[in-house]
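debug: dumping io for the single-chain case to check the tokenizer round-trip. Nothing else runs in this session.
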Amino acid sequence: MSELAFLSAVELLDGYKQKAFSPVDVARACLTRIERRGAALNAFVHVDHEGAIAAARASEERYRRGTPDGPLDGVPVTIKDLILTRGMPTRRGSKALDASGPWETDAPVTARLREANAVILGKTSTPEMGWKAVTDSPLLGVARNPWNPAMTPGGSSGGAGIAAATGMGALHVGTDGGGSIRIPASFCGVFGLKPSFGRVPAWPLSPTGTVAHLGPMTRKVADAALMLNTITRPDSRDWHSLPYDSRDYLAGIEDGIAGARIAWSPRLSRFDVEPDVAKTVAESVRSFEQLGAVVEEVDLAVPDVHAIFRPHWWIGCYNAVRALPREKRAMLDPGLAAAADEGSRITLNEYLDAIAARGALGAMLREFHTRYDFLVTPTVAVAPFATGRIAPEYLADVGNDWTRWASFSYPFNLTQQPAATVPCGFTQSGMPVGMQIVGAMHDDRGVLRAARAFERACPWHDSYERRIEA
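debug: decoded output
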């Protein structure tokens, strides 16, 4: 049963067709994993055991008749608790939101997965309103890293990262407004992709606006590509969305990166990186040369991205809670309340300056990618740190500003480019390290191809179950 829970979505679909096992077998295996470790790690805010088994039985019957229906028929998936899901509460990690609903609407990504006959297991945990890059909330408490429960899984898609790493489903939907897919994927040792902005339709628009993306978190790269085939399908409710591209994201994923031009930037000119992380990523970058790519170390002189991102994010925090009545605002995570208060004090001129600086950064990166196919960096400057903190202990002076240690991720929310994290090793203390691959705007396929080339050369999921349980 445990082995079934760790199979990839691609392997599951093949097994269903061969009648080696059934969607019910797999759903039960994943639900067993959730029962065994989900509560201890705080991965889920809602588990729909009855609904998942019913969906799996319907899928099992379709396979029995030889009439599977949908590209993900019977594949177990999870949805982050920021995303509307019919029949399940979307609490956004908050006690201030009413759980009673009614919950009658699917967001576009949920609707597409349901139409593909995926089996929705439940809703994964997030910090309140997704405001920070660690996962704890007034609603659920502290989520914990599966490699070491004393450490954070990162955030804000921390529950999805935990679920992906521990066999609690094959496909997981995360959101990423400043690194919220890539940070927990890196900390939990799984693959995560922030697609180009608008590639995956979103509705309603995030309170943080056009820095927020949706994307897949999986154990294998091909699963993310398979998932994109479904969740990128159009939805008229998102007027920001890109024109639909019907090409198969799995097509060409095995083509490799021979001849690709890769810029390796260990610090993006300005960011300090923990030595253990820096060494692990630097050693991993060499694999691209062995794969035939041309790798050049580049001191990419980015501007002060913190000053650009901060007004966007803090105003987004204010926007997320501004409609709450006073008695509800008193229930908020104190850090979120402080961030919202700070966002309310940002002036119009400061915000307009940040918008202009964002445009200049985007133009700079567009020009950069006329010379390089990919930019490679560490995903996160730090290794997973203790739970109950918003930053490593030695960064105690940052207050509630998680962006001080997540500076490799949010530049590419500002520029809206596709960016993925691939597991590339472990620290001396045994915690996962991620390497970030950034592509030119709209080159999601190229990022998947580069990630798959690295995965093939340095497979991180061999004996995954044994390693995560050790």
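debug: round-trip ok. The chain has one domain: 2-469.
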